[in-house]
Design brief:
The complex is a heterodimer of chains A (about 450) and B (about 220).
Chain A (H helix, E strand, L loop, with lengths): L14 H5 L25 H10 L4 H16 L3 E5 L2 H11 L7 E5 L4 H9 L3 E5 L10 H7 L4 E4 L11 H11 L2 E5 L7 E2 L2 E2 L6 E5 L13 E5 L2 H14 L7 H35 L2 E2 L7 E2 L5 E5 L11 H14 L16 H5 L25 H9 E4 L9 H15 L2 H10 L14
Parallel strand pairs in A: 2-3, 2-4, 4-5, 5-8
Antiparallel strand pairs in A: 1-9, 6-7, 6-11, 8-9, 10-12, 12-13
Helix pairs in contact in A: 2-9, 3-9, 4-5, 4-8, 9-13, 10-14
Chain B lengths: L2 H14 L11 H13 L3 E5 L2 H11 L7 E2 L6 H10 L2 E2 L7 E4 L8 H6 L5 E5 L9 E5 L2 H9 L5 H9 L19 H17 L18
Parallel strand pairs in B: 2-3, 4-5
Antiparallel strand pairs in B: 1-6, 5-6
Helix pairs in contact in B: 1-8, 2-8, 3-6
The chains are: A alpha/beta (about 450), B alpha/beta (about 220).
Amino acid sequence: MITDFPTAPLDPPGPADREADLAALGGPAMIGREVRRTPFPVITKEDVLHMLLSLRQDPAKTVDAFAESYRDYVGAAFALPTASGTASLHMALVGAGVEPGDEVVVPAFTFIATAQAVVAAHAVPVFVDIDPRTYCMDPAAAAAAVTDRTRAVMPVHVHGLPADMPALRRLCDERGLALVEDASHAHSARIGDHTAGSIGDTAGQSLMADKNFPLGGEGGIAFFASAEAHARAVDYLARHGIDYRMAPIAAAFGASQLERLPYYDRVRARNAAVLGDALRQTGLFEPPHVPEGHVHAYNMYRIGLRPERIGLDDLPVHAVKQAVHELLVAEGVPAREWQNTPIPCHLPFRHRDGFGGGYPFSLNPGAVRDHRPEDFPNTLAMLESTLVLCRELRSPVEYERVLRYGEAFAKVAARPDAIRKLAAGGDCPPPHRRAARLG
Amino acid sequence: MEPFDTAVVLTRVMTSGTVMSIEKADRELPGLERLLARQCGRPHVSLVNSSTAAVHAAVAGQGLGHGDRVDATGLDEPTVAFLAWLGITAGDGPVPFDRVRLTPENAGRLRELAAEATAPALVVDLCDLGFGPAAAVVTADETAWARAERLKIFGAFDLRTMWTQEESNPGLVPGVQFNYRLSPLVAACIRVALNQARASRGGSPRASEATAASGAAR
C-alpha cells in the first residue's frame, strides 16, 4: 500500500541538537532525512467517507453545495466555482467589467497566474512595485500607474497577508476603478472582521491542493459583491463557449476539508507564532511583518535576513542568503526562494506574444513596458534578502517540527564564520540573474 | 465503472496522499498519459481539465493563435465560439483537430475511434465518462505536445524549470498560460474506467491496470 503516513516520529529538540556542529560541516542534521517529508494536505477518514457519499449525488449538486458553503464561510455575496485559481481570477476580472485592451494594475511580485489572468481577460497587466515590509502591492505605486485606460486594480494578498485594502479602496473610489482581489494565498485571512475574498468588488482564489484550504486536486472560486458582476461572468463563459467547471471530485474533497479549516488555521497561527518567537532570538532572522488588524493566513512564511546584526554587512545580502539557504537545507529545513525575479521579467511578459501576434498587448501599446528587474527595487530587495517556508507550517501534527525549525535557524545564525566562508567563497549571482522560476 | 470500483480507486489515491498534479510522486497522470498514447497509437499526450482546454492545446500545439483561420467544418457552435475567443476564425485553413467524445458506451472502442483520426491533433473528450471535466490532446508531433504543455501553468516545462533552476526550453516561449492541469484523482478514475471498458470488449489491457486497485502496490 502506498501511504503518506509518517514512517517515523519526530522528537522535540534537546540541548544537544543545538550544540552539535552544522550538518553542512559534518554534524547531525536538525531534521534527519527519514523524517523530512511534510504530508500535505492532511487527508482523513472524513474526507474519504464524504467523497464516497458524494458518488451517490448529482455531480452538479456536489459542486454547488461546496461553493455555497465556502461562499458563506468567506462572507461574499455571490460565488462561481471554477476549474482553477487562474480561471477564478479571469472571471473576477470579467465580473469587474474589464474589457479587451483595458489596463489592470497588478503587483510585480506574485504568482504568474495573477498577470496571466489579466491577459486571459484580453487586457494588459501594468506592473507596480511592492511595499517593502508587507510585500503586497504598494498603494502609492498603484496610484502612480493609473491612466485613463485603467479599469481595475488587482492587489494580491501575498503569502496570506491581506494587502492594504483600505488605501486601495480609497484609490479605486477616487478614480472610478474596480478593486479585484487575488486571494489565492489568503484563505481565512482577514482585515478586521472582513475575510479575504469578500473585501473587493470581485475576487479570485485558488483552491488547489497545495493551498491552506485544499480541494482534491485543482480548483478555484470567484467571488462577486453584486449580482451584476456575477451575471457578467456567467454570461461571458456561455457566450464564449469556455468550460471552466470545477470537477465534482475536487469539490467533494473540499467540502469535508472546509469543516476542519478553522482547526488548521489555529494550528498554523500557533506554529507561525512559535517560529516567529524563535527567529527573533536569532538576530539574523526576522519573521513576517503583520500590520495591526490584519490576520495573516501563512500560506507561506517569508523570513527576512539581517546580516548586519551578526557582523556580515560587508557581504552582499544575496550571498549571505544563498549561504544560509545551503546551511538550512543541510539541517533538513526545506527553505526555498519562491520566485527569483519580478513577474514582468518572466518569458511570457518579456516576449508578450499573448494569444498570438501580441494580442491583447497590441490593443494598448501605450501600456506596455520592457521592464528590467531594477524597475522594481522593493521586489528585488525582498528576493535578495528573504527565504520562504511553504507547506511546512501547516500540518497539525508537526509541533515538534516547528520547534526543530526554530532550533535550526538558531544553529545557523550562531555560526557567522561558516556563513561568511560559504558566502565569500562561492559563485553567487543575484537571484534574478538565474532562469525565472514559477515557484 | 461500478460504484465499488470508483470508491476503491478514489480511496487508493487519497491513501497515497498525492492528489496534486505538481507532485513528483504523482503516478496517476503519467499512467493515464501512457494508456491514452497506447490506445490512440500516438506517442505524445497532454492531459487537461476541460474539453475547451483541449481545443486550445490542440490549436496552440500547431502554432495557431490569434489572427489565424481554420477549417471549422463540423465543429459545434460552442467550439466555434471558443475558437473566436482565441482569435481564430472559421475559413480557409487547416483542419485543426479531430475529436473523439468518449462515453461509458464507446470507451472500449477508443483504439478504433482514434485510428480513424487524420488531423495532426486528436482531442479526446473524457467529460462524459462521469468523473467531471477532463480531456486530452494526443499527437505524434513532439513539438505540438511541447507547445500544448507550455500552455499549462506548471505544466511539464515549468516544473522542470522549478526543479532544475534552469529554463528547460528557452526556444519555446510561452505566451498566455492557463491552469489547465488535470487532477490526479480524476485521472485515476478515468484510467481504470478506460481499462475496464477495453477489457469488457475483449481487449487486453495489462492485467494490473484493469482493476481499481491497480497502482496500490507500486
